[in-house]
């Protein structure tokens, strides 16, 4: 394929999440002819468990269901199990938010019983009402910014729900200056937001220069929760997929540049 036929031909795309050169978002932008500019505005680290959370993990074989809300949750939970000398009870039922979370679990030999059609906690909570029974024990594994919608819904129908906040989302302070430098010197055409936290931190750094930073840019959002954050600041949304994955987001970006909508 000639470079001139690529949808992102020479366009600079700002990526504001942690992503190495092998990450699907970085590779996808390159394959479409774009130049990825990586300035992570969020990072993730394993959280020190509270005494209650530690006890919850120790009782791992007593649960009927495990709910994973993200790939990070899977990664840090398995790391914690290893440190505690525990193994995951693979005969239990598992629900996961997102096809990538499912794929990661499958790669660990863990079969996933349910993934919602739309990759949000709200859709997972609604669907699991039909799949669980009162009295079942459920462990929800999540990050510190995840909403508690799944746990609340399952408690309402009589399930015994415990949660473990296994990781924290943090702001890499060193990237404040880098973001301003990239916006001024590189002038990216595309801004890609993959979480509400990336939106909040971008706006915080931009300050009274927000309108200047977003003027003439194509703003891409991964899904409805991130859309809500963008709308809160009055920012336009040019691209947002119906299925909340990186692959679908890039497909919609291609359609945007080809004038499909």
Automatic annotation (TrEMBL):
One Pfam family named in its UniProt record: HEM4
Domain of life: Bacteria
Keyword vocabulary terms for this entry: Lyase, Porphyrin biosynthesis
The keyword Lyase is annotated on this UniProt entry: yes
Domain Tetrapyrrole biosynthesis uroporphyrinogen III synthase: 25-250
First-level EC class: lyase
Biochemical pathway: Porphyrin-containing compound metabolism; protoporphyrin-IX biosynthesis; coproporphyrinogen-III from 5-aminolevulinate: step 3/4
Catalyzed chemical reaction(s): hydroxymethylbilane = uroporphyrinogen III + H2O
SUPFAM superfamilies from the UniProt entry: HemD-like
EC number: 4.2.1.75
Record-linked Gene3D superfamilies: 3.40.50.10090
Its biological purpose: Catalyzes cyclization of the linear tetrapyrrole, hydroxymethylbilane, to the macrocyclic uroporphyrinogen III.
Family indicated by similarity: Belongs to the uroporphyrinogen-III synthase family.
Name the UniProt record assigns to this protein: Uroporphyrinogen-III synthase
Organism: Pallidibacillus pasinlerensis
């Amino acid at each position: 394929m000639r470079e001139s036929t690529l949808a992102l031909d020479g366009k600079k795309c700002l990526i504001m999440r942690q992503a190495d050169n092998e990450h699907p978002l970085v590779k996808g932008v390159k394959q479409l002819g774009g130049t990825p500019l990586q300035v992570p505005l969020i990072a993730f680290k394993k959280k020190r468990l509270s005494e209650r959370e530690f006890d919850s993990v120790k009782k791992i074989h007593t649960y009927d269901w495990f709910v994973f809300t993200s790939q990070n949750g899977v990664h840090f939970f398995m790391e914690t199990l290893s440190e505690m000398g525990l193994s995951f009870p693979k005969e239990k039922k598992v629900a996961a938010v997102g096809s990538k979370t499912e794929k990661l679990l499958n790669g660990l030999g863990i079969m996933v019983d349910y993934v919602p059609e739309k990759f949000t906690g709200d859709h997972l909570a609604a669907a699991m009402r039909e799949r669980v029974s009162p009295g079942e024990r459920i462990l929800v594994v999540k990050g510190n910014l995840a909403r508690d919608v799944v746990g609340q819904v399952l408690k309402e129908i009589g399930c015994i729900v415990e949660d473990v906040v296994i990781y924290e989302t943090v702001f890499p302070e060193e990237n404040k200056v880098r973001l301003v430098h990239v916006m001024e010197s590189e002038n990216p055409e595309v801004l890609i937001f993959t979480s509400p936290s990336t939106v909040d931190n971008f706006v915080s750094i931009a300050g009274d220069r927000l309108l200047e930073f977003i003027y003439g840019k194509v703003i891409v959002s991964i899904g409805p929760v991130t859309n809500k954050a963008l709308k809160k600041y009055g920012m336009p949304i040019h691209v947002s997929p119906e299925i909340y994955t990186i692959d679908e987001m890039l497909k919609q970006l291609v359609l945007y540049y080809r004038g499909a909508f």
